[in-house]
Amino acid sequence: MTKDNDPFDLSSVNDEDGWVPPGVNTSIPHSARMYDWWLGGKDNYASDRELGETFLQAIPSIKTMAKANRAFLRRTVDHLAREAGIRQFLDIGTGIPTEGNVHEIAQAVAPECRVVYVDNDPIVLVHARALMSSSSEGTTAYIDADVRCPERILNHPALARTLDLNQPVALTLIAILMLLEDDEDPWQVTRTLMDALPSGSYLVISHPGRDFDPQAMAAVETAAHRAGMVLSTRTRQDVERFFGDWRMVEPGVVPVTEWRPSGEPTSSTDPAYYWGGLARKD
Ligand SMILES: C[S@@+](CC[C@H](N)C(=O)[O-])C[C@H]1O[C@@H](n2cnc3c(N)ncnc32)[C@H](O)[C@@H]1O
What we know:
There is one protein chain. By secondary structure, the protein is of the alpha/beta class. The protein has eleven helices and eight strands. Strands 1, 2, 3, 4, 5, 6, 7 and 8 form an eight-stranded mixed β-sheet that branches. The N and C termini lie far apart (48 Å). S-adenosylmethionine binds at residues 31-32, 35, 69-70, 73, 93-95, 119-121, 124, 146-148, 174-176, 179.
């Protein structure tokens, strides 16, 4: 099979003179690839780095912020597997694989954990094979789908094969909901996913907070829109609304660095600019 017809071919994704995965428009910046650049990855193009640099001008700690968000993901997934006994995860807006993917964190605690990854970026699809390197006791699956069509995700055969929706599931929406406009009603999208899960399930969200620095956030929103990318930063109250009537786990919706910090270097004193929280369906 050649890279032309192998959707999982990993070679030369980021070779500026080389192959570009089918479906990728390198002239328009993309959230997954900008985020990859901030995290020090190599799966990004000039347009991603250019807008990423503009964001960096407005928010000098943006790279720390991306790392703090990843650290929040690690701590919440570890908490869910270790303290809450969760064995099933639905991770939507997975991103380009990096150190500490959801299944690696969860399966390090309980190798039998089952994880469904969902993303709609062709570059993430190219890397999906790395996300499917499950432990032999557990399993992982990848669904190429848009969160704006939650029913498609919920009715996907790969989800039915991997997760038992009669047993608790942790739904992780980490740094994705800001990529939906208010008029796409990300609250209803989230509610549709939540309603499909049984009691004992959990929801984890992180989201850039407008209220941390309204001026800087307005500047990055404007830059994103000019570049053809959706970005909706939101207030703490807006983020709390995502959790609806589920019971917030302590400490509630807080800057991600303050969500049960573990003392690792990325839980630093730099401003995080991301709200994060975890709630349980009783
Ligand atoms: C900023 S990255 C976050 C990655 C990871 N969750 C993390 O926090 O490290 C956002 C991810 O959401 C994905 N995404 C954006 N819009 C999406 C949509 N409508 N449906 C599914 N995935 C989407 C992007 O492709 C990207 O991989």
